[in-house]
UniProtKB/TrEMBL annotation:
InterPro entries: 6-hairpin_glycosidase_sf, 6hp_glycosidase-like_sf, Gal_mutarotase_sf_dom, GH65_N, GH94_catalytic, GH94_Enzymes, Glyco_hydrolase_94_b-supersand. GO terms for biological process: carbohydrate metabolic process. The keyword Glycosyltransferase applies. Residues 312-736 form the Glycosyl hydrolase 94 catalytic domain. It comes from Dactylosporangium matsuzakiense. This is Glycosyl transferase.
């Protein structure tokens, strides 16, 4: 069952009914001001940090699920009837409804009793504000007297404090209203540097800034007293719940259309701002007023929206493909690339499933997100790498997360996830391959953001690798620490006395549990660091030797006869082995070890992948492990706390699926690689939206596994490493257009029934026009000249166009 359709020409997903199985969201903003917005205008906005600079309020796990947002109400003065043009929050049965989620913008259109409305939301480039544009048309045969009410509920900046500290918050709310602009200045008294504002382009009939005055006692957002009465009360908030609402009255003649603009924004005073009189608690509006006035002008909004669309033209133009599969085309060319931008900006911090409070930017997460983003804006990837590396500890370890506003490690989450440091090597390698910017390796970067501890980034990479070598367990495999990529596999749980409560060792050195997954990741990272070292003329053989030694250890202690084992627990018991009663085979080491090259030459990789297909593959994707854990096992930690088939307990953790796609491509099996790609491809799952439930235009973190009663149902959409790794799998391995340190490689491993494909790839300033066709003999020509089919394409001069023709057998 479908709830909408793709409009590929306009690069939009069109939702044609408001009652989607879950709120289907989009993201506003690409730089520093962001927001999430659902197909019924739910969501919230923030500046840089969803916890520390939250502008508007949103309540998670609410009923209805999606409540609180960028709401507008229309009221007919003649009948007294009112409704929401975005369906929420009044849920009036509209005569027409359509939501178009585009790239960093959303448009919701509706019709009700002869009044057409279209609301557009977007964040202009270079600004810390969002624009709402309301377009109204009267299709009645008589004039319509309408009232328009806007509505946002201001959050008190720190979202955690906003949701918990009511004894304080009900006394601190403050606003100012001047010339129709509502300024929310709570916190200004103590910080005196930032505030929010909410402005309207039309003369006001009234306003409200106190939530209870707008809603009325004991009422909710579906029937505000101000809207019902058709009159605002001009309330000014002093404590309690600051709110922003404008009231505009208009008369529309038959056939007449009008536009009303709203601007919601964030502003910081310049550091040298003067206050008159000194000590005044009245906010300094002088610098922001020109910005507000400019963005309330229709021509400015038109130009800003056009610039946003043009920017996405440029970004998506970095890679465009045309394959025999339409779903592949729209995901690679539009939606997967778009999701990569969002995950780069958000990491895992804020979505319909992440509140923006508990998680900031992930060390592991952000490095992985670089893989799918780096080709679009390499300079921003460079900046992110340096931010991430600055949170690294001097041991080579890392805080698992850091706050985007402060760029400091999150002590609440801490460190001890022993896979984290190696992801820095993989992230930097991806950046270097794309950009060729070797100068980043000499950039001075502190440890733990401590002044005076600066060392070249290359030193950070060396310490990342050494961190693993310094923490090897009884079998010579890397210690898992608190966990590895699978945060819920907590194997350093132990009891000194049988029958007594278990304890958890969360640091890197206090437990002996080992990870085969990290071992495979180490082999991959060591080889990448060797390539980087060789490229800049530094010693590299030691890294290759370390990789070879670890590969040998995996073969000796990490191979189970038909697949790679997962780990060893605190007691030395093997995990992910045929000898286990449950959890016999895990997907993660099968993918990561093969990506590191382990078992490729001796046939182990092919055996492992056959086991994956036999034991882990389902029509909805590859599950994490089998058999699922049927009961809670203290010695395994959180993984067994989930019911069978969900999340880490045999759910389809979509992030791991592209590792298997890449592994299949490495062993030359294009049919299997593409088969797995299609199983979790959002666009290809659109027809089963009533089962999948999440958005059909972006990847979800997980899909319920075959042991779950809801097999095939997705959860945790948008913010997942699935996005970057699936983009990597399809673009670099299946289509085979792969950046390397010395140039661009074209080495596709495509399905046997494809006659070929074409692609345009921007790479280091040049444009590569690539055509791949089937033939009897593999052959490659570059600008009409024969070239080694196994070679890396030579770097082309900036601005040049390179014609690449590859024949594959």
């Amino acid at each position: 069952m479908r709830f909408g359709h793709f409009d590929d020409e306009r690069r939009e997903y069109v939702i044609d009914r408001p009652d989607t199985p879950l709120p289907w969201i989009n993201y506003l903003g690409t730089e520093s001001y962001f927001g999430i917005i659902s197909n019924t205008a739910g969501g919230y906005s923030f500046y840089r940090d969803a916890r520390l600079r939250r502008l508007t309020r949103y309540r998670y796990n609410n009923a209805p699920f999606d409540f609180g947002g960028r709401y507008l109400y229309l009221r007919d003065a003649g009948s007294g009837e009112y409704w929401s043009p975005t369906w929420q929050p009044t849920q009036t049965e509209l005569d027409e409804y359509e939501c178009r989620h585009g790239l960093s913008y959303t448009q919701i259109a509706s019709g009700y009793k002869g009044i057409k409305a279209k609301v557009s939301y977007f964040v202009p480039l270079g600004e810390t504000l969002e624009v709402w544009r309301l377009q109204l048309t009267n299709e009645r045969e008589s004039a319509a007297e309408l009232s328009v009410f806007s509505s946002v509920e201001f959050a008190l900046w720190d979202a955690q404090d906003d949701a918990t500290n009511y004894q304080r918050n009900f006394n601190t709310g403050q606003v100012e209203v001047e010339d129709g602009v509502i300024y929310h200045k709570t916190e200004y008294r103590e910080r005196r540097d930032h505030f929010a504002y909410f402005a309207c382009s039309e003369p006001l009939a009234g306003f409200d800034t106190q939530r209870e005055a707008f809603l009325g006692p004991y009422r909710a957002w579906d029937r505000p007293i101000a809207v019902e009465r058709g009159t605002s009360s001009d309330s000014v908030a002093h404590g309690w719940q600051p709110h922003g609402s404008h009231h505009v009255r208009i008369t529309l003649e038959p056939g007449e259309s009008r536009e009303i603009g709203f601007v919601l924004g964030y502003w910081e005073n310049p550091k040298d701002a003067k206050f008159d009189p000194p000590g005044s608690q009245t906010i300094n509006k002088q610098t922001v007023r020109p910005v507000i006035e400019r963005w309330l002008q229709q021509e400015t909004v038109d130009a800003g929206f056009a610039a946003l669309r043009a920017n996405w033209d440029r970004l998506l133009g970095t890679l465009q493909v045309h394959t025999p599969d339409g779903d592949t085309n729209r995901m690679v060319n539009i939606w997967n690339a778009y999701q990569n931008m969002v995950t780069f900006n958000m990491s895992r911090s804020t979505s319909g499933f992440e509140t923006g409070i508990g998680r900031g930017m992930g060390f592991r997460d952000s490095n992985q997100d670089l893989l799918g983003f780096v080709h679009m804006i390499p300079e921003r990837a460079r900046e992110r790498i340096l931010d991430i590396a600055a949170t690294q500890l001097s041991t080579g370890g890392a805080y698992h997360q850091y706050q985007p506003l402060t760029k400091r490690g999150n002590n609440d989450i801490g460190s001890g996830f022993n896979d984290d440091p190696l992801w820095l090597i993989l992230g930097v390698a991806a950046y270097l391959k794309e950009s060729g910017d070797l100068s980043i390796l000499d950039a001075p970067v502190p440890y733990d953001n401590e002044a005076g501890s600066e060392q070249p980034l290359y030193d950070h990479l060396q310490r990342s690798l050494q961190y693993t070598l310094d923490r090897l367990g009884p079998h010579g495999l890397p210690l898992i620490g608190r966990a590895d990529w699978n945060d819920c596999l907590n194997l350093n749980c132990f009891s000194d006395t049988p029958g007594e409560p278990f304890q958890t060792t969360e640091n890197a050195t206090g437990g002996v549990a080992e990870s085969v997954f990290i071992a495979g990741q180490f082999v991959l990272a060591a080889k990448e660091l060797a390539g980087i070292a060789q490229c800049v003329g530094k010693p590299h053989q030691e890294y290759l030797d370390a990789a070879e030694k670890m590969a040998g250890t995996i073969a000796e202690h990490g191979w189970d006869g038909a697949w790679f084992r997962r780990a060893y627990d605190f007691y030395g018991n093997v995990i992910g082995s045929a000898s286990n009663d449950e959890g016999q085979i895990f997907v993660e080491p099968q993918g990561m070890c093969i990506m590191g090259g382990v078992g490729v030459e001796d046939g182990l990789a092919v055996k492992a992948l056959a086991s994956v297909r036999e034991r882990l593959a389902t029509p909805h994707g590859v599950v994490l492990q089998q058999p699922a854990y049927s009961s809670y096992r203290l010695e395994l930690g959180e993984i067994s706390s989930y019911p069978p088939g969900y999340k880490e307990n045999a759910g389809i953790f979509c992030h791991t699926n592209p590792w298997i796609m890449i592994a299949e491509a490495i062993v030359g099996n294009g049919d299997a690689a593409f088969d797995y790609y299609r199983r979790i491809l959002p666009s290809a799952r659109e027809a089963i939206s009533e089962v999948h439930r999440c958005e059909p235009y972006v990847y979800a973190q997980m899909i319920a596994g075959k042991d779950a009663p809801t097999h095939g149902e997705a959860k945790n959409s948008w913010l997942t490493g699935t996005a970057a790794y699936n983009f990597t799998a399809i673009s670099q391995w299946i289509l085979g257009i792969r950046p390397e340190l010395t140039g661009l490689r074209v080495d596709p491993v495509i399905p046997s029934d494809w006659p070929g494909f074409t692609a345009v790839r921007q790479f280091r300033g040049a444009t590569y026009r690539i055509s791949v066709t089937r033939g009897a003999v593999r052959a490659l020509s570059v600008d009409g000249q024969d070239f080694d089919p196994a070679g890396v394409l030579p770097l082309a001069p900036e601005g040049s166009v390179v014609e690449v023709n590859l024949t594959v057998s």
